[in-house]
C-alpha cells in the first residue's frame, strides 16, 4: 500500500514538473512526500527516495511519448536532481518517527 502511495506521489510530482516546469515546486513535493512516507514507514527510508524519485523522469518520458511536451536538457537533468531533497525528507521523517517513539516510551 505504501509503495502505491509513493508511486502516486512521484507521478504527481512529475506531472507538476511537466505542467508548471518549476523545479523548486517539484522538489518541495518530493520532500513532502518523502517526509510523510518516512514518518509512516521509517525502516529503510532510502526506498521512498528511489520510488518517488524514479517516477519523475518516467512521467516526463511519458509526456514526451504522447507528444504533450518536448523537454529541454536542463529539465531532464533537473528531473533526476529533484529526488535529492527527498533524501533529506525520508531520513528526516524516519528520524522524527524514532524520536517520537522514544518520547512515548519515556526514554
Question: Can you tell me about this structure?
Answer:
Helix 1 packs across helix 3 and helix 3 runs antiparallel to helix 5. With 107 residues, the chain is mainly α. It is elongated. The chain has helices spanning 2-20, 23-40, 46-65, 73-81, 84-105.
One letter per element, helices H and strands E, the order comes to: HHHHH
Quaternary structure: single chain
Tell me the structural class. Answer: mainly alpha
Contiguous uncertain segments of 5+ residues: none
Strand count, sense and closure of the main sheet?
none
What radius of gyration results from the CA coordinates? 15 Å
Q: How large is the count of helical segments?
A: 5
Task: Determine the N-to-C terminus distance.
Answer: 31 Å
Strand content: under 5%
A few lines on this structure:
By secondary structure, the chain is mainly α. It has helices spanning 2-20, 23-40, 46-65, 73-81, 84-105.
Tags for this model:
elongated; 82% helix; 107 residues; mainly alpha; single chain
Topology, pairings included?
Blueprint: H1 2-20, H2 23-40, H3 46-65, H4 73-81, H5 84-105
Amino acid at each position: 500500500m505504501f509503495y502505491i502511495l509513493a508511486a502516486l506521489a512521484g507521478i504527481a510530482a512529475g506531472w507538476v514538473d511537466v505542467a508548471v516546469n518549476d523545479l523548486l515546486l517539484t522538489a518541495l513535493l518530493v520532500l513532502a512526500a518523502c517526509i510523510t512516507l518516512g514518518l509512516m514507514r521509517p525502516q529503510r527510508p532510502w526506498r521512498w527516495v528511489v520510488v518517488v524519485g524514479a517516477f519523475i523522469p518516467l512521467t516526463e518520458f511519458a509526456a514526451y511519448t504522447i507528444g504533450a511536451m518536448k523537454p529541454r536538457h536542463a529539465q531532464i537533468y533537473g528531473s533526476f536532481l529533484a529526488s535529492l531533497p527527498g533524501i533529506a525528507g525520508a531520513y528526516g521523517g524516519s528520524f522524527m518517527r524514532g524520536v517520537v517513539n522514544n518520547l512515548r516510551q519515556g526514554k
